[in-house]
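My hope is that you will study the protein record below before we discuss the fold together.
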Amino acid sequence: MSNKHHTLLIIGGGAAGVSLANNMRRQNAAIDIVLIEPSEIHYYQPGFTIVGGGAYTLKQTIRKEADLIHPSVNWIKDFAETFQPEDNTVTLRSGDVIGYDYLVVCPGLQLDWDKIKGLKETLGKNNVCSNYSPETVEYTWECIKNMASGTALFTQPPMPIKCAGAPQKIMYLAADRFRKKGILDKFTLEFCNAGPVLFGVPLFAKALDKVVADYGIKVNFNTNLVAIDGPAKTATFEVTDSDGNKQQVNKTFDMIHVTPPQSAPDFIKKSPLANAAGWVDVNPKTLQHNQYKNIFGLGDAGSTPNAKTAAAVRKQVPVVVDNILSLIDNKNLVEGYDGYGSCPLTTSLNKVMLAEFSYDCKVTPSFPLLDPRKNRWIWWWGKTTGFPWLYWHLMVKGYRIDIPHLECYAKRFLKEE
């Protein structure tokens, strides 16, 4: 067992961890940074929806982790196991103990497949698919491509989850595929949502009601998937009525797309850094830990009540970097994060509704001259080309991406369609 000390220790090498390490390096060339991340592969997870919809390949979502991390950042390929914040140390699975002056915790979410009885045994066969893992996302496209008729179910578990719109995005892509093949009328499409609304921001929920109606999709609220029998093509849901009474309802299917329940990683839940719900307990505006002032959290594992998206990470990273540098210089922290998140809702194979919002469901469009409720081809280009380019070449490389209110640009290049 060794005991090594670093100025900045980052737990997690996904979108948040890599972006933060590289951003910090660009702001401070001398600071000693170590990144803990076991995986050698980095995925562009926002691309999984369009992989499942047949408009992208899995290979396009993959890069080598080593190619993304600045060579001056010390990358340790290991798992964090326990936190000792009183001693300013983290113990790794290898047994090594790493000390730090400042700690940033951003390990992402874990997918709780086991919370749905029978799911692991049938996932990836029997037309049971999910976009939420690189191991299963390609099978979603196989299912959609090979279906000619039948009942297709799409599920959404209780919040929070990665990108709250993703469970319905794949439903719209599937419906549009069927429509373009002239077979949409041969399908029964149902959205089984454990929540009470189609989308958490009312402005976009109302717009999505029209999309659902256009495809003839039946929406079932307060309907949570709890078990699945793949060979029997039967899914069991716990349905809650308006009085809070629960009953189990079975639905048969020819295809089912499952969004698994999600939570903070177990090693976070059992750590002293977690709040009662298991999330890294941070101030929603400064992203500083509420108890340990030299610790910060961002990304999906944080307790902030924002949408858990890569767009949120883009806004959170500069806040954390600047506040750590402020602590080093004995300056006051800035309440720089307003809860911004973005969800490009793929409503068809060539149009997207770009939902942008902050805390308290405030709508915050980057192009305010354009009605954000309207489905546009330009955002489909963004989803498939522009946003991935920004992610790989700017965001994770540590550049700060600020999209101001470009009214003139919008008027000239993004004319109303």
The first strand starts at residue 3 and ends at 11. The chain has eleven helices and 21 strands. Residues 341-413 form one domain. The chain has three domains: 3-110+264-328, 111-262, 341-413.
